[in-house]
Amino acid sequence: MEVWPPLLVVIFTLYVVSPCCGLEAVAKNVTVAQLLPISSYHGGLATYNAKNFGAEGNGTNDDTKALMAAWKAACGAYGTVTLLIPPGTYYIGPTKFHGPCKASAITFLLQGTLKAATDLRRFGNDWIEFGWVKDLTVTGQNNAIINGQGAASWPFNKCPFQKDCKVLPTSVLFVNNQNTVVRDITSVNSKFFHIALLQSKNMKLINIQINAPENSPNTDGIHIERSTGVVISDTHISTGDDCISIGQGSDNIDIARVHCGPGHGMSVGSLGRYVDEGDVTRVHVRNMTFVGTMNGVRIKTWENSPTKSLAAHMLFENMIMKDVQNPIIIDQKYCPYYDCEHKHVSGVTLKDITFKNIKGTSSTPVAVRLRCGVPCQGVVLQDVDLKYMGEGGSSSKCENAMATYVGYQHPEPCA
């Protein structure tokens, strides 16, 4: 990348109208900064450095306005552009990186640390928001970190035991984006979810590192909702809740080579809590490893669903479980609160779901739990080998599952 010297002056020939002589060639000394508000320019690619817009990166001064100003300049430029966040620690409150952008493609390049404010009065539902942008790449270099500073907020999270709770801010929300790549980023200690995808299309998340303590509440690693064409791969998630959760209205989700633990495992759901939820379809999860998690692969739907929906066409294959409490679980009577009524079955129909080549160890005797409301349709277990090292070995429990079993089965199928 060719960098413009900060005081470089270039001679431009400007043609002006002279009162006496018509067109007149006049040599003018114009600084590059007057013409191009960029930090570097090479081969038609422009880079906007956040520090040129007032960001200090000292970890103390609030850089929110500076980063948003840098984004505005990059987003408003034409061509392929980069917003550079150079090494340093950038203390910021709620920050919106919104489009639509004039740029044909934009890269958000983080080389330092983004550190969240801790005063919850400043926040709505999220901290960093990328919205209404096409052809966006969010990438990191030099151990780029997004630090939600969640420890100060976790005591105020009432959601684990209060149904109508105030949700704390998600660290990074992607909403209404198309053709987005997120890669080589580390997210630590989110206040609530680490990364959430909402109403987005064609998203790729590659080599993401997510870390929060095992007892941190609702710190889901990656949450997907009302999105389509999502790929997650080669990622490591250690957190206090679901490593990956797939919410309502999601379609064509592909997940591969993800390490999960500690945490609550990988979940489809919870589904069926609200009116008019969208279906969840075409989910393919493979080559995941779960270590010491509460669950392995889980599908969970609420009781007493107000309207009907579908969760269908899912394949979970090539999974390794290491001391997982519930390696395979379908729970259509999900309710984490003590005052659930247990009066009506879930309104979510489960259909065409396959668990294939699931192996390892369970930390509880029941390694396979299939708890359907109305009968599940087309549940297949193929080549399952899950051992409980305690007395009596592993077992299965089923309710309205009507499952089909193929190949080797341990524990033995339900009667």
TrEMBL record:
Major enzyme class: hydrolase
Catalytic activity: [(1->4)-alpha-D-galacturonosyl](n) + H2O = alpha-D-galacturonate + [(1->4)-alpha-D-galacturonosyl](n-1)
Keywords carried by this UniProt record: Cell wall, Cell wall biogenesis/degradation, Glycosidase, Hydrolase, Secreted, Signal
GO molecular function term, any single one: galacturan 1,4-alpha-galacturonidase activity
Gene3D superfamilies: Single-stranded right-handed beta-helix, Pectin lyase-like
Active site per database record: H264
Localization: Secreted, Cell wall
Endpoints of the signal sequence: 1-22
Taxonomic superkingdom: Eukaryota
E.C. number: 3.2.1.67
GO biological process, one term: carbohydrate metabolic process
Function per UniProt: May function in depolymerizing pectin during pollen development, germination, and tube growth. Acts as an exo-polygalacturonase.
Family to which the UniProt record says this protein belongs: Belongs to the glycosyl hydrolase 28 family.
Annotated protein name in UniProt: Exopolygalacturonase
Organism: Triticum aestivum
